[in-house]
Amino acid sequence: MNIVLILACMAVFYNIDLLGYNSEYLSVQQTKNLKGIFTLIVLFHHLAIFASVGDVYNIFINSGYIAVGGFLFISGYGLMYQYMHKGRNYVKSFPKRRILTILIPSVVMAIAYFVLKQYRYGYTLGALIYDFKRGASVISNGWYINAIIYFYIAFFISMLLCELIKKRRIMIIFTFIFTYLYIFLCMKFKFEDHWFSAAFAFYFGILWAMFKSQIDSNLKKSIPIIIGCLFIFYYVLNVFTPFKYGWMEFKCLMYLAIIVILGMRIKLQSPLMEWVEDHSLEIYLVHGLFFEILRNNHINIVDNFEFMVTLLILTFISSYVLHKIFTFINKKIINS
């Protein structure tokens, strides 16, 4: 019942409006709420995988890649939306405003993880390189950080090519090639499935941004029917014709489509989730440290609920402090 209590506490902070049609279903506020939810799902998923904390295990054990897919979808949508509206100016500012704002915190936290692991069990630079080659990150569960950096750089290169050719619609081709290349490389180096099972979500977000007006005009009058058809379609495939390859990727895109279309009727308004989203990068980067710190030869919190609450409290406090620091650094770089 631990997870039920936590979710009930979260629900107190939520203000949900049911609308005939929510034209702002992918607005900044809506996507902030969604990313806040996805962040908590990732946290609970990792608790389920690495700590086996009661009911969390049963609820969130298979949800991690879908939550990460949600991040990738919103990122792809947001980047493409900004590029379509700002054009060349967005391309010029992209390295400082987008890539560095992720790269700098990631490098800083990678150093912190390296130092901690070196102190605990003699982790070396050679071990770090070996882990990277086999699909493991010095940042605990940091594959998503590597993926998002790759996709941001790929998007930047795609924008440069589009500006060179002077045809922005060709982004649909360049970003598909980079997405396919990412999946190909992950499979070639035999990375685990979670590295690439949500990869097409980023491309899905780009497509949604490019064709949003057409999507809206076709869906807004029949949202319940569309959602019902998606559920039936998914159920039929899941029960009768599950395919061996691409099933995880298909499930991720199917769930994301349902979530986004539901947003056409449901408006999310939670200051708590918006705060979580504002600190989501730092939360993702720092929470793995406390798996190392709270259960080892020196400190070992045995009780699962106590471990979970302690980890969440320390994660949120640390992410708040780190967010202040990284925001200050990023502003200095952007204004330089």
Overall description:
Pfam families: Acyl_transf_3. Helices cover about 75% and strands about 0% of the residues. By secondary structure, the chain is an all-alpha fold. The protein has one domain (about 1-10, about 25-335). The chain has a two-stranded antiparallel sheet with strand order 1-2. Helix 4 (about 65-85) packs across helix 12 (about 245-260). The longest helix is centred in the first third of the chain and has 34 residues, at about 90-120. The protein starts with a helix and ends with a helix. The mean pLDDT is about 85.
Write the layout of secondary structure elements.
Blueprint: H1 2-12, E1 15-18, H2 28-50, H3 56-60, H4 64-86, H5 88-121, H6 125-133, H7 143-165, H8 171-188, H9 200-210, H10 212-219, H11 223-240, H12 247-262, E2 266-269, H13 271-278, H14 280-294, H15 304-334
Antiparallel strand pairs: 1-2
Helix pairs in contact: 2-4, 2-13, 2-14, 4-7, 4-9, 4-12, 5-7, 5-14, 5-15, 7-8, 8-9, 11-12, 14-15
* H/I helix tally: 15
The overall pLDDT average reads 87
- Please estimate the helix content: over 70%
Count of discrete structural domains:
1
Number of strands: 2
- What is Rg? 20 Å
Biggest β-sheet: strands ordered side by side in the sheet: 1-2
Distance between the termini: 51 Å
Low-confidence stretches: none
SS-derived structural category:
mainly alpha
The SSE order reads: HEHHHHHHHHHHHEHHH
Overall geometry comes to: globular
User: How big a fraction of the residues is strand?
Assistant: under 5%
Please outline the major beta sheet.
2 strands, antiparallel
Pfam families: Acyl_transf_3 (PF01757)
Keywords: Acyltransferase, Membrane, Transferase, Transmembrane, Transmembrane helix
GO molecular function, one term: acyltransferase activity
Transmembrane segments: 36-53, 59-79, 99-116, 143-162, 169-189, 195-211, 223-240, 246-264, 305-322
